[in-house]
Design a protein that fits this description.
- 38% of the residues lie in helices and 12% in strands.
- By secondary structure, the chain is α/β, with parallel strands linked by helices.
- Helix 3 (109-126) runs parallel beside helix 4 (143-152), helix 4 (143-152) crosses helix 6 (177-194) and helix 7 packs parallel to helix 8 (258-271).
- The relative contact order is 0.08.
- Residues 19-31 have low confidence and may be disordered.
Length: 368
């Protein structure tokens, strides 16, 4: 029974992203090793996490979720001791390097949170586990419970799910966007500011793309707000997945390129100094799918190019297609040491994608 419970609650957790790539069921291992999820970091490394729901009991009516309260199936849950036993078995056998723990909401949010916090408390204090723990904060959880979670976890997160209140109301009638979700996210940010040692990896969130009538402009505006106000550098943008036996089972999936393009645009806003009005959208507020948004901006602003690499500011370098933050920093660091760039190969050695950058740069005032 325990392996079947693990399979059900492991599969039920897969739609909650904890990395920046699009949903990919291949990231989960086979039925022989349920609950192991291979999260990919921004640096490209894969990290196996034990990723599971504490319980699939839920009183929420989220239209996209298989666990919504009107769905009729057997509801099951782990006790803290059961979950700890399974996780430690995985961890000690090197199947998993960390824990990502979430739960359905069986009425009182603090009831669900109490069980997850108890798992983290026992792992830290009784089993002296010092590895990675990510705890999902249940919407509506109390301030004190969130504080307890942050004292034990490396990362905490609350799923925002929608970029706007109206979009949120399209998805659920049992949760309040501002009170149950955004208010809790603000508490986390405030606690983190006052106590930097809490949840050292910070907080994250997820927005579902394509489940409601929100535009990409709505999504990017919210992602930018989260970055500026709650210090969330990357909001996970999960492409909507229509699931059987949910109210949105017949809803159309978003275009495959939509979430990846939104990720690219989010990086431009949060890391590259672009403003929202510099992201080129169509007349209805949706991102253009056939071209990288940075390349599209460059093509739309010929007056800004070509950029002289040997003289350009860091900000100007960051605007060049094919030049990332690391390569821009390497260029400026090399110039401080007196290095002059005379050929494209010099830039390629620093990580510049020269094929993409070449039309937009010059070296020693000469086009390459």
């Amino acid at each position: 029974m325990e392996i079947e419970k693990l399979r059900i609650l492991g599969e039920a957790s897969q739609y909650d992203l904890c990395n920046y790539v699009s949903l990919n069921k291949e990231n989960f291992t086979s039925r022989n090793l349920p609950g192991i999820y291979h999260a990919r970091t921004q640096g490209g490394c894969q990290v196996p996490l034990f990723k599971v729901l504490m319980s699939n009991h839920c009183t929420s009516d989220c239209n996209y979720c298989i666990n919504h309260c009107h769905n009729r199936f057997e509801r099951i849950e782990f006790s803290p001791e059961e979950l700890i036993s399974v996780f430690l078995h995985y961890y000690q056998n090197h199947y998993a390097e960390g824990l990502f723990l979430s739960s359905g909401m069986p009425g009182d949010a603090d009831v669900a949170m109490e069980n997850m916090v108890e798992v983290a408390r026992k792992l830290r204090l009784e089993y002296e586990y010092q590895g990675y723990i990510h705890l999902k904060v249940i919407p509506g959880a109390s301030y004190d419970m969130i504080k307890r979670a942050m004292n034990l976890a490396d990362r905490v997160s609350v799923n925002l799910e929608s970029a706007t209140r109206s979009g949120f109301q399209e998805l659920t009638s049992t949760k309040d966007y501002h009170n149950d979700v955004l208010r809790r996210m603000k508490w986390i940010a405030r606690l983190k500011k006052r106590h930097p040692e809490m949840a050292p990896s910070g907080q994250s969130t997820q927005i579902i793309v394509g489940a409601n009538n929100e535009t990409d402009q709505d999504v990017l505006k919210r992602a930018q707000w989260l970055h500026k106000n709650l210090n969330i550098n990357l909001s996970y943008l999960s492409p909507f997945e229509p699931l059987k036996e949910t109210p949105l089972s017949d809803h159309t999936k978003p275009e495959e390129k939509r979430s990846p393009r939104l990720y690219q645009a989010q990086f431009l806003l949060n890391s590259y100094g672009f403003s929202l009005d510099e992201i080129i959208l169509d007349d209805e507020g949706f991102i253009l799918l056939n071209e990288d948004p940075k390349l599209l901006w460059a093509k739309s602003h010929p007056e800004e190019f070509p950029v002289e690499v040997n003289e350009a500011s860091f900000k100007q370098l960051m605007r060049i297609p094919g030049v990332g933050k690391k390569s821009a920093q390497r260029i400026t660091d090399a110039r401080r040491k007196g290095v002059k760039f005379n050929k494209m190969e010099d830039l390629k050695n620093l990580g510049v994608v020269t094929k993409r950058a070449e039309p937009f740069i010059q070296l020693n005032h000469a086009r390459q």
